[in-house]
Amino acid sequence: MSLLLNEAMLNNNEPGRLLPIDINAIFDIDEESDMDISDNEIDDALDRIMDATDGVGEMWEMQDDDDILQDSHNTEKSKTFHLSADSYEEWIKNLEKAGLSYIRHEHKAKESGSRKKYSYIKVMLPVDSTTVILQHYYKHNNHQSGHLSDLCTLPLSDNIRHFIRQRALEGLDTHSIQQLLWHRGIELQDHVQLLEQGTESQNIQSLRDGLVTRDDIYTIVHITLKSCAYLDNDELRSLIKWQEKLSCVGGYCLFNNSGDENKGFMFAFQTEKQKELIKFARVVCLDTTGSGYPVAFLISKFKRLVTLKAWLDFLKEKNSEWNPDIFMVDDAGKEIKAVEECFPNANEDLWQLMKTKGWDDSEALRQITEAINKWRRMGVEASTKFADYFERWWKSKYDKWMVCLRGVARDMMDTNNLIEAFHRKLKYVYMRGRPKRRLDSEVYLLVEIVLQDLNFSVFLDDLNIGRMNPRRQQQRI
C-alpha cells in the first residue's frame, strides 16, 4: 500500500532528517536496526499507523501495490527516510494542523495533464519492523524541497495574523502593513545566518513569521474587510443590520424593500458627519452616478420620481434646518419635478453648456441666437444638426442655465463637475468597474472607506501636501 501526499517538506541540507509541518522541533530518524520484533508489536505499530492516517477523516481504499518503488521514472530523484511509529503519528498530526491534504492512490499518478505531480511522498507500511519508510520523489525546476521558500506554505502564527487584522481595521492598506513588517525580513536573514553557523536551534514558526509575503497580508486584509462589510451571510439581513448600525452611531437610514413596483428597492443613508455638513449646504448637486463632499447617499434600483421624492422628503424631515438655495441637476424631468415638489422655493439649475456674458433676457437671447447662427454658417452638416438640436432643446430653457455667480461665494461649487468626477472615481477607482457587487459591501465602502478618504484628502489639502492618488485609494480596498 502507498499514500500519496500532496505537500511535504524535507530538509535536504541535513541528510536523514525530516522537516515537520508547522512545529518547532525536528524528528530524529531512527534507522531500522532491530529485526527481532514480535508479531504483536508489529500489529500494534501497524494499527497505530493506520489510525493516525485515517484520523484526518479521509476515506481510504485499501489497495496493494508492491511495485510502487519500481515505477518511478529514471529522471526522478528520490530520498528514503525512516520514521518510528511515534514520529509518524506526530507527522500526520502536523499535516492536519497545517491544513495540508493527502490522497491515496493505487499507482503513482502519470505525469500528464492536470494530474502531473512534481513532488510526492510514498509511505510504505512496515512488514517485519515498526519503522515506516517514507520515499520522497521530487522533480522540480531547480527547486529542492526544504528550501526557505517552502516556509510560505506554512500558516502564520496567531499573533502575526492578529497584528495584520488590527492594522487593517485601523485603515492601513496592504502596502503600508507590508512596510511595517519589512524589518522582519532583516531579522530573518540574521536568523538564517545563525542557522548556517549552527549556533541556534531551528524554530520553524519563527522563520515563517519572519517571512510574511504580500499575498499573506492581502488575504488577511481581504477576509477582515469582508467580515466588516458582510454583517450577515444573507444580503438583505445584512442591510437591515447596517440600517441598525448607522442609526446607533448617530446617522439616518431609510431602507425600503417592500416590493412596491412604484418605489422599488431603496437604501438611503446619512452619517453623523454628513448631518452636520448639510446644515451649511446652500448649493446641492443631485446626480445618479472630485473634491466635493457628499452629504447623503441613495442606492436604488430605478431613478423614478417617487423614489427621488421619497429620498428628498426623508432628508428634509430628518434635517429640519436644511434650506438650500440652489439645486444643481441634470436636464432630467424626474429630478427637476422631485426638487420642485420637495423644495418649491429653491432654484433648479441645469448643467452649464454655455456661459453668457450677461443675464438679462434680451442680452441672453441675443448671444444664444448669434452662437446658433455661427454654427449654421460653418456649412458643416454636424454643426448644422447641433445648432438645430440646441435651438430646439436648450434655447427655451436658458433661464435655468447655470450662472457661476448668483449671490453665492466664488469658492462654492455650483456645477456638477465635481460630483461627476466623484462618481467616476467611486465606480472605477474604488469599485474598479466590477459589476454585481453585494449592496452591503457598497454601504461599507461608502461609510468606512470613501468618506474617510475624503476627510483625509481635505486634511492633506489644508497642509498643502496633496491629495490621495488612485493607487493609494485602490490599495485600501
Strand numbers in spatial order across the main sheet: 2-5-4
Rg for CA atoms: 35 Å
Report low-confidence residues grouped into runs of 5 or more: 1-35, 55-74, 106-115, 349-359, 403-414
Overall geometry comes to: elongated
Order of helices and strands: EHEHEEEHHHHHHEEHEEHEHEHHHHH
For the sheet with most strands, the description reads: 3 strands, antiparallel
Question: What is the helix fraction of residues, given as a range?
Answer: 40-55%
Distance between the termini: 49 Å
Protein name: MULE transposase domain-containing protein
Give short descriptive properties of this protein.
3 domains, 477 residues, alpha+beta, elongated, 16 helices, MULE transposase domain-containing protein, 3-stranded antiparallel sheet
Write up what this structure looks like:
The chain is of the alpha+beta class. The protein has three domains: 3-153, no CATH class; 158-229; 235-352 and 402-475, no CATH class. It has 16 helices and eleven strands. The relative contact order is 0.08.
Quick description:
The protein has helices spanning 39-54, 85-97, 158-169, 174-180, 183-197, 204-209, 214-229, 235-248, 272-278, 305-318, 333-342, 361-377, 381-393, 417-430, 439-462, 470-475, and strands spanning 3-5, 77-84, 102-104, 119-124, 131-138, 252-256, 266-270, 283-285, 297-300, 326-329, 347-350.
